[in-house]
Recover the amino acids of this structure.
């Protein structure tokens, strides 16, 4: 089934999820390696950053498609709605993930557009962005934002993976199978709350206090 149900993820949602995971994990590795390369390996450093930026654009595009698809699809219910703290944490992490999937590449793209000629994006559509001037100060600020948001993304991924492993190894409740095979899990619909989304907003706001 291509679409979601209240108890399972469809093929499109699952494909977008795993494509996102592949791009993001590859790009995190590329970014960490590129940052740590010494300047005397400049050619390799520039090449890795170019691939990193290009994959970032791909990640941004896939994230927008994924979010648009999620908005028009039913969202599978929590498998354990009675576990209120666990459900709140899981949904908060999901909100952080969704926001970071957009904000991390977008902040990096703005940084790149504000910078003069380092490690070009590997595409024919130009290196600038509308309304983004060439500005060392803006580039420096967005570099800080990009770095902070990237670490938020890494932390959210770690929590997301830990939660998935808990459901698979300890609870054995079918949560991971919903995303792997589209198997149904969960019973009664649960009421959605705004608190997890507000918690995610607070996380991002607090992370920017010292910039």
């Amino acid at each position: 089934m291509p679409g979601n149900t209240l108890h399972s993820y469809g093929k499109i949602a699952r494909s977008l999820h795993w494509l996102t995971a592949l791009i993001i994990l590859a790009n995190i590795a590329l970014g960490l390696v590129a940052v740590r390369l010494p300047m005397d390996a400049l050619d390799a450093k520039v090449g890795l950053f170019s691939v990193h930026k290009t994959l970032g654009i791909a990640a941004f595009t896939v994230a927008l498609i994924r979010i648009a698809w999620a908005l028009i699809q039913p969202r599978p219910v929590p498998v354990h709605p009675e576990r209120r703290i666990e459900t709140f944490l899981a949904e908060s992490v999901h909100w952080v993930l969704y926001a970071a999937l957009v904000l991390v590449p977008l902040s990096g793209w703005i940084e790149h557009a504000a910078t003069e000629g380092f490690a070009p994006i590997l595409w024919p559509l130009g290196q600038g962005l509308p309304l983004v001037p060439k500005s060392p100060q803006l580039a420096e600020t967005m570099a800080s934002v990009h770095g902070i948001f990237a670490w938020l993304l890494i932390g959210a991924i770690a929590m997301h993976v830990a939660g998935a492993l808990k459901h698979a190894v300890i609870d054995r409740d079918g949560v991971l199978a919903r995303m792997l095979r589209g198997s149904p899990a969960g019973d009664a619909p649960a009421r959605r709350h705004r608190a997890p989304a507000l918690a995610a907003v607070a996380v991002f706001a607090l992370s920017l206090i010292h910039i």
